[in-house]
Structure formats: C-alpha cells, structure tokens
Amino acid sequence: MTAPLNSHRRLRSLRYSSEKMEGTGSWDVIEWSKLDPASWSSSFSNLDCLLESERITFECCGVILVNTHEAGTLLLTNFRILFLTEGTRKLVPLGTIPLVAIEKFSKMVLKGQSNRHHSDKNPPKRLLQVTGKDMRIIVYGFRPGTKQRRAVVDAILKCSNPERVWDLYAFTCGPSKFGNKNPKERLLNEYFRLLGKISLKASKNMIEDGSFTLSNDYWRITNLNSNYDLCQTYPFALMVPKSISDEELIQASTFRAKCRLPVISWCHPGSGAVIARSSQPLVGLMMNMRSNFDEKLVASFCTQLAGHEGAQRKLYIADARPRKNALANGAMGGGSESSSNYLQSKFIVFFGIDNIHAMRESFSRLRDYLDMHGTTSSDGTSSFLRHGGWTWSGGNLSSMSASVSLLGESGWLSHIQSILAGVAWIAARVAMESASVLVHCSDGWDRTTQLVSLACLLLDPYYRTFAGFQALVEKDWLAFGHPFSDRIGMTNVCGSGNFESPIQTSSARSYPSSPVPQTSGSAAAQPSSSSHGLNNYSPIFLQWVDCISQLMRMYPCAFEFSPTFLVDFMDCLLSCRFGNFLCNSEKERQECGISEACGCVWAYLTDLRSRSGTSHAHCNPIYDPSRYDGPLLPPAAALAPTLWPQFHLRWACPVEPNAAETEVQCRAMALKYSETKKEKEEAERKVDALSSTVESLREELLNERNISLAARESAKRAIKERAVISRAVQSLGCKVNFTKNGDCTVEVGDGPQKCCHSIPQNNLRTVKQMSQNLSHHQRVNKSL
C-alpha cells in the first residue's frame, strides 16, 4: 500500500543524505527528526495487510531490518510484528512474524570503534534479535540515543503475555466465517470408514446418547472414555478389539504410562491387519512386572488371517526409542515389553529415534547453519563475504567441506531418515505380511504419533488427499493427545489464564563485527541462558510434515496437495491464528470451548482452494490417483532425505531454491494443458456434430439420387407410353397436340360431333381412359 508522505504525521523519519560517506554503514547516513507522537495511530490505521480484528498497538518508525539493510517502520499488532518499508509502506515478509511464532528474542549492543574520518568514537548500535520457530532469525536495528528498543521489547512482552485468555488473537477474531464443526463428529466418521460403515454419519445426538458404539467382525468402538475418566489424553471414543470387554480395558490401562493403553489407530479393510498405539509398559527396572490384561489385549490384535483357516497373523511390537533409553526408563518404572511375556509377538524392534530434547537442539543447529550460510543472514553479511570470504567462495576446499559438514552435524536429516526408515518398516510388515504392529515410545504422543500417522499415510491412499490429510491429523495428532501447546511453544489457554511469553535472552553465539557492511565494531553480549531447557518446546509436528515433504519428493504424483499447502498449513499452525491446535488434548479443548470460540484452519484452507479450484497453489497439478491407489513402500535406498527447500530455505535463501518457481511453472503448464484439453474436447464435439451433419446430408443426397433415378425411369416409360398412345390415337383419325409442358390435347371428329380432351402428362390412367373414350366416339361417328 502506497501512501503520501506527509511530514506532519511522521514521528521519526529517515532522511538519507545525498552525499556518500566513505567508511560508514547504513547507520551513519541516517538523520533523525522527532515529531509529535500524536500522529502515529492515524498513519497506519487503514493498512490493507491487516487481518480481521487485527489492530495496531505500537508503532516505531526509523527501524532497520539488518538482514536486508532496509529501513522502515515496525508495527506491533495484537497478532504479529509488521515491518513496512520506508516511503512505499510495502510489507516485508522476512521482517513480519506472528508473536506466537517467536521462540525467543535477545537484546544486543554493537560497540563501534573510532572512525578514521572522525575523532569521536561511534556510539554503540542497539539490536534486537528475534528467533522464530519457522527457521528464521530476524535482527532489527534501532538508533542509538533513543528508547525505541526498550519500548519495542516491552510491547512484545505485553502482547505476548496478555492478562486474559480471551486476549489471544484466535479468540479475538472468533470463528468468523471459518467456523469449526464439532471435531468429535469427524473422528467418529473416520472410525466408521475404518470399520466399513461408510454409509453412516455421526451426529451430535449420537455423541450425546452414546449410540456410536458400532462394531464389525473384529473391532468395536467403545465409549468407555466418553468423560475422559479412563485416559485424559485419549479421545472420547476408542477403537478396540471386539473380544476385549470394557472391564478388561480398565485393568489394562493401569499397566501403561499415562493410562495410554493399546488401541487401534488404523485397520486394513482387506487383510484385517491393524496399526495399534500405546505408551510404554510399566515393567520396572528388572522388567519383572506383568499384567495379564495388557498381555491379553495385545494378543487380541493377532486375529486370524483372511483366507487362511486356523492361521494367526503375526504381531510386531515397535519401540521408537533407542534400546538404551528404554532400559533407562525402566529405572523410573517404565521400560519395554519382554518377548517371554508377549508370546504372540514375533519381534520387538527398536527404531533408535531420539527424544524431543535431541530434536530441539538439532533444529536449533540447523537454523543457525542456514542463517550463517544463507544468502540473507541475520547479521546482514553474505556467506560469500563472511570472515574474509574463506567460508565459501574465497577459501580452500577443506574450509568449504568443513562448512558443508555443519549441515550433517546438525543431525536433522539423520533424524528424518531414522523416522522414514521406521515408517517404511511398519508399512512393509502390514502390506506384505498382513501383520499387525503395535507402536509406542515413552508416553506415546510424540514419536509414536509420527510413526503411526506416517505409516497410515503410506498404506492408505485416502490420507494422501485433502480430506484424508485432515482426518489423519485430527485422529492421530489432535484426538490422541499430542501436546501441541507444549511442543510448539504456544500459550497455554488452560489453568490460570496466564501465558508463557517468549524467552528474553542475550545472544549466545558469536556475533559478527558488524550487522551492516562497512561498519566496524565488536559485539558486546551478555552470557545467555538457553530457553530450551525451560520448557517442552520441540518441533515434533514440523518434523512429521518434513517427512511428508520427503515422501512427496519420492512420489510426486501420489499426493493431492502440494508442498505449498504444507508450508501454508505450518504457518497457520505456528501463528496460532486458529484454535484447532490450542491446548494439549481433546479434553482441554472441550473444556475451553475452542471449537465454538475460535476459527478453523481447515475451513480457511478449504475457502482458499474454493476460489481457484484445481488451479490453486495448494493443489498438486500432477496428482494421479489411479496410478497410486495402493500402498507406498519406499525402498531403503530411496530414504535419503534432503532439505525441504520451500520451508527450510525460504528465509535464508529466498532466491536460490527455485522449487516454488518450478511449481508455479508446472501449475501454469497444467492449467494450459487443461485449457487445451477443454478446447480439444470442444473441437471433438464440433467434429462429431459436423460428421453427423455430413452423414445426414449424405443420406439425403443418396435418397435424392434414388428418387432422381426413379423419376428418370418413370420419364422414360412415360415417353414410350406417350408415343404408343399417340400412334394409337392418330391411327383412329384423331389429332394429337402436345404443349410445351408435356400435356396433350386430343381432337375427335369434325363438325357438331367434335370433342376435345386434355391429357396431363403425369396421368397415364387418364390417357388410357381417353383412349377408350376415343374408341367410343369413333364407333358413334361411323354409325352416324
């Protein structure tokens, strides 16, 4: 949005000097003027970029976005930080970040050194580094000698820590036009689909009276947890073996951590194999604790194989943790199953996937690596020029290799590969052996959810559609209690009503000598305390979406949605704009009335697609459901993950990753192909119509030809008959006169007995009758 620059409404404007000052950076060519603060709010009250119910709470003019060397205005709303360029007021995406998406921020001071042109020492520069949960690190610069930075920090703390729950933007905006239908109904509809009861639809009355307890030959839906008395982090409805009673389920739940007993997440419609999930068993340090009810429940997943009378299916128990971690948990009462107690289990395997703390540190190292070696860095220095150029372009091969190795040292891609390998193993057991698999980790809501949901994605093509993806997320992530508020670091809307604000720290890593080119100085930063150890934040869900992007790279035609859809979906989740992912469980969301008070991200994304149909950026233009209508079983050699360019590189390398541009071009080609196909179909319809017309004309011409031939033959016969009749009449002494049109007149006799008869050419019967009449007249004349 471009607005005229009226001097009376600018508080602190940036006026660039016309002269070029050698040896100085962006800071030193700026002059500041302090105007009346009363003109602030009127300047930006009608911005087009503001969302519904979004209001500006703080404004700060004359701020520098160090990453891109842009000067502009920093606006703080009840939802996000906005950065607008000076003059044009163009929104800068890199400098615009939702408040909830801020992981931490640090106040920094850059001390300047004496300039060779000036004897006085340069004043220190005041910086504010904002670290986001979406892979970006933003640095804002504030002019020395002002209290701008302090005001911005106070405003961020105030907006990030509202006094009331309802001050959160998701509640302030409300459901609006993106209302959230009862998520319990959608969960039941998914259960009905898995049980083969597709014709049934869940309703509010069905939930209230508990009439949703349906079953098939092997499995049933129980309402035992309808009040969340059995397990507070499980959904209200559970799918369990039909042979296990509710009393046995209650007893079995006491042997699992957090009472998260083994239940069914997905069942194969043909073979009857299931993927079940739970938390770790409470076997203790010596692994000598047992539960007959738990063992019976696990054994009930070994139903008979379809088509193999008397043959029991295999059962695998997959522990997502490293074996040593499982043994260590035994000291706290947990542990893993013993094959001697669970005799029906074929194997107990350990996938070796690390815990949430390792994932958090790995994600942080990856973010630092991308910021350090990206095109747009938080210190404003290109990776080509960092440290004299040795890091990338100016160094030797060993230095370059050392820089590249930092990506591997982050461990992020190794973690992705471990998850994909475990998922491929589970999918292969179910698809190729018709075996059932029980998956768990410690609590059964992090690594377990990743493995189970990805395995379902590989096995069931429905989950690779828009509707199926929503059902999968709502079933395995939301309903089964993944603690989103803790893991994504969102505010906790339950309990006291106070929120956890982003952690304020000083910078821990070595900051370069200058945030902008041509400025010399050294960073003065206080020792920092990491925010990671103070909460349970961990990018578990982001890691799961990253795994989906890897599968989409391997099978680009198997998914209805595109990588752009995943990016926009993650942005909605991290921004806390909608209420779907608030709280830590279904129970908490119900107690807070989230579905009634907040908007729905699924309705929002559906509305975006409805505007453009299949040509929308969220739709995969090369989706081929007929080709991939079965399970996806990636081989081990294909499980080599790479960085997800649309998400990981969009801030650090906004130009280099051309995946988005390629996708746009592919979409344009698909749209052109679709239009060409429509034109072809229209042309084919016209050709068919013309062919039909030509055939009809051909038949008409053939009929006309036949008629013409028949008429010609009739004419020949008529001529012959006329000649015969004419000779016959003339032989009787009559005169025959023919007209031009073929008619003839016959005159019989002279005098008073003269008579005249006209004979039409086309009436042969009349000619014959006239011949008879002529014979009669002749006889009369003779008698006379």
Automatic annotation (TrEMBL):
Q: What is this protein called?
A: phosphatidylinositol-3,5-bisphosphate 3-phosphatase
Q: What is its EC number?
A: 3.1.3.95
* Record organism: Brassica carinata (Ethiopian mustard)
Coiled-coil ranges (or none): 666-707
What GO terms are given for molecular function?
A: phosphatidylinositol-3,5-bisphosphate 3-phosphatase activity; phosphatidylinositol-3-phosphate phosphatase activity
Domain of life from the UniProt record: Eukaryota
Q: Which GO terms describe its cellular component?
A: cytoplasm
Q: What is this enzyme's class at the first EC digit?
A: hydrolase
Bias type Low complexity, positions: 520-531
**Keyword Cell inner membrane set for record:** no
Q: Which residues bind substrate?
A: 355-356, 441-447
On whether Lipid metabolism is a keyword of this UniProt record, the answer is yes
Per UniProt, what is one Pfam family of this protein? Myotub-related
Region of interest: Disordered: 504-532
Bias regions of kind Polar residues — which residues? 504-519
N-terminal signal peptide = none
